[in-house]
Amino acid sequence: MQRGGVSMSEVAIRVANLSKRYRIGLGAYGAFRYKTLRDVLTEVAYAPFRRLRGTSRREVRNPDSEHIWALKDVSLEVQQGEVLGIIGRNGAGKTTLLKILSRVTEPTSGYAEIRGRVGSLLEVGTGFHPELTGRENIYLNGAILGMKRAEIQRKFDEIVGFAELEKFIDTPVKRYSSGMYMRLAFSVAAHLESEILLVDEVLAVGDASFQKKCLGKMGDAAREGRTVLFVSHNMTAVRSLCSNCSLLEGGHLAFSGSVGECIDRYLSEFGGDNPSEVYTESLPRPSVVADTSLRILRVKLDTGNRQAMVRSAQPLVVEMGFRSSRPLADVVFGITVDSVDNIRILDCRSTDTFTPIRELLPGRYSIRCAIEQNILAPGLYRLSVGARCASKGLEYLPHVLTFEVQEVDRYESLWLEVPSGFVRVRSNWSSPEEA
Amino acid sequence: MRAADSLPRVVIRPRSRWVPVNLRDLWEYRELLYFLTWRDVKVRYKQTLLGVAWAVLQPVLTMVVFSVFFGRLARIPSDNLPYPVFAFCGLLPWQMFSRALTDASMSLVQQERIIAKVYFPRLLVPISAVLASLVDFAVAFVLLIGMMLWYRIAPTPAAFTLPLFILLALATACGVSFWLSALAVQYRDVRFALSFLTQIWLFATPVVYPSSLVPTSLRPYYGLNPMSGVVEAFRWALLGKGQPPGPMLWVSVAVVAVMFVGGLLYFRRMESTFADVI
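^ Those are the sequences you sent over. The predicted structure of the assembly is below.
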């Protein structure tokens, strides 16, 4: 990642054994109950006894309350100019970490040291008041985020321009569409000039073009040499923006290091809802399947782990296990790849490699199909498999597997530069010449 | 990009019980105080039919009701002043105080969204709510001048001391609201207690009746209510009737000081839990 200016190996953020505990229940049967007068009186009444035993109020084991550790002994160091991705499942503690570093909430134990001003985007549109106009909200929101009035004034036109709301800037915000609202909110936040930026999945909202804009701005921040902590579920964005990555799991720091390794670790455990292997014996078949003489038992996408995610630089390997119950003649296998909108993209037959199998004896078999890498563009796809013989269709499993192709190589170092379309080809360009 | 050594350095760790007020932080965020106050004022009467007229209507209508029931029917004495202006002069600082107290006490709870998401010194929230009440006061004050002209009552030179008493009223509102707003985050009871509290407080303050009605034996306790000093002073400075503030004023000031400092400390102590509990 190219970065402007000299990167100083100064530590911008140092976190040591940071922990945060939340009280999650105060009532019988584990149900949450707000603290009432009775609880207060009980606490007060027992205070002298607690003092004798030397326990402080915070440590008293109230049998009614439950605690969870949202963060436990997290330690990290972020250098100035580093862009650190923080990933993990929902509930892993990512937002809690950012909240503590933003000083919104206090740690239960541990310590963090921050060098530089902090701008935090835990949510866009914080403090927007629906009755005020866009103009007024820019000032209000900017002030809440920590910008000085003169600074907001200076950047005002830029902010309005980025949000593309020149015509609506003097209308009350409650009249805005949700898209306009988001654009304005993000625009204000994007113009924060702090040395450190804490970003929490704000980019997850909004339409595709808005998200591209947001990522572009994030990229700018990174290029300017600012320190960024980026919490996201969007692995592609993390891969393209971040120089390092940390994985949080259940409040603990599970891994910290290179982006690729971190994401792989995350994905191999938790990424996505698409399993790479499906057992298909008992799945219903469409009516085109005549009988059960050939049955595909399992379909597997060879990704090396349990998730159906392949890198674009990896060949697409589909493995099928099947059994046949009687001799079959002239058998051909096929797989098709459709987009999520059911547009047929690829159609591969076993006849690409060998002639139809003249005689397939009863038994259990497995067969593999490998499709070249760097053909499919990043995105979600649906795999269908089938088999036929000369006279009829033997097997058909439409959309048996959904898989994702992920971009690895960075074009222009930002995801938003990735070309559109389903198919990736290499084109050859000649340099411009004087005509 | 600033040089490394000129960057502000912040250490975050669990704080001990009693936390001092971070004056540098408050200064750093002073512009936000302006914006929060400005927002409260702007939004107050938006999309209402009567708009800012409400700032005048509230004291006026109250005055009319009081004049009818307390002035005429109950015949409460009014220091030889026409009851309407007597009541209005007392209502002015009272309604400012009461509004400030109510708004500020619920301010943290009402703004839980920003409190849970962004850092800024939380003290600014109740303070801005208190300051916003000055606007209503200013509008109604103009009406008071009008009434004084109508009844041909001239203000005394002591009117120049009014800002001090306004400050006392605001300080009382701040002090009490520091306690109440911090409590309201944990215990929503505060909302219900507030309307009850302000009603009782109204009758403990000489708004409806003159303070000369209070027997001398009860006077010392009466002085504990800072608002009684404020209302008396308003009447004395503007209308020329009643006692100039005496030694009881110092008792009031002392009460306010204790309330204010205590409120600050309690607020600061509870501040770290706001985002978690709100």
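Residues 248-277 of chain B form the longest helix (30 residues). Chain B has one domain: 22-27+49-277.

Shout if you want it in another format.
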